[in-house]
Amino acid sequence: MARRLEGKVAIVTASTQGIGFAIAERFGHEGASVIISSRKQKNVDEAVEKLKNKGIEVMGIVCHVSNAQQRKELIDKTVQKYGHIDIVVSNAAANPTIDNILDTQEQTLDKLWEINVKASILLLQAAAPHLKKGSSVILISSIGGYHPQASMAMYGVTKTALLGLTKALASEMSPDTRVNCIAPGFVPTNFADFLVRNETIRKSIEEKTLLRRLGTPGDMAATAAFLASDDASYITGETIIVAGGMPSRL
Ligand code: NAP
């Protein structure tokens, strides 16, 4: 595997399993020091152990992305140990309801905004003073950001917001920091466990996918590593859809 991220310091949120973990692992294999985090200490400890066993330089920190103190610790401890930050992947999201938007409780709307959008902004506010020239930010949106689906409509709308946030931050953080976004298709993780549990849904999604398969965390990680690397040094403000050719946009 190419070592495109040698010497880089990368924070990945929500990274003790699923897509975030795969991104951290890929970054580590490409030479980065990775800082992984999630809400539960046990998950952080187990993920750190797995990555260390693969020879990856890793630090684990508990961070619920909507907890201000824990976000501060994530940045502070990273800077204390490594001195600067090269890459931030904002990957955490919540999908707490299947209600229609017009039936969604206010506190649920707040939670969706808090975790899926606001926490990314606040994390980047804290990280920005430590981001080096040539640094890279990656937001994780969703194919659902292009077509919010009925069963996860408001979640989809928060993911649409990340497409705009990517453009706005790319402008604000230029020229030293590139800001890009990944919109994954359907990946069978805990977050999308209906894909694992429900054969009919899984098959119907596979049929809508030109490549006739679901995505893997590794598919997303490969794209994240590209965007974080100098191979993407002239790309900013863009969203890459990694969805096997599912209907998205022109
Ligand atoms: P996942 O496999 O369920 O993993 C979620 C990870 O996030 C875990 O490590 C979990 O650990 C952590 N986490 C959950 N809530 C958190 C919070 N508030 N703060 C910090 N960490 C938190 O999920 P995934 O499928 O990889 O999803 C990752 C991202 O991809 C999300 O932004 C999601 O919207 C996006 N996405 C996923 C799919 C898909 O089909 N899977 C499709 C499109 C987009 P703890 O329990 O220890 O916190």
UniProtKB/TrEMBL annotation:
Source superkingdom: Eukaryota
SUPFAM superfamilies: NAD(P)-binding Rossmann-fold domains
Any single Pfam family the record assigns to this protein: adh_short_C2
Record InterPro entries: NAD(P)-bd_dom_sf (IPR036291), Sc_DH/Rdtase_CS (IPR020904), SDR_fam (IPR002347)
Family: Belongs to the short-chain dehydrogenases/reductases (SDR) family.
Name of the protein in its database record: Tropinone reductase-like 3
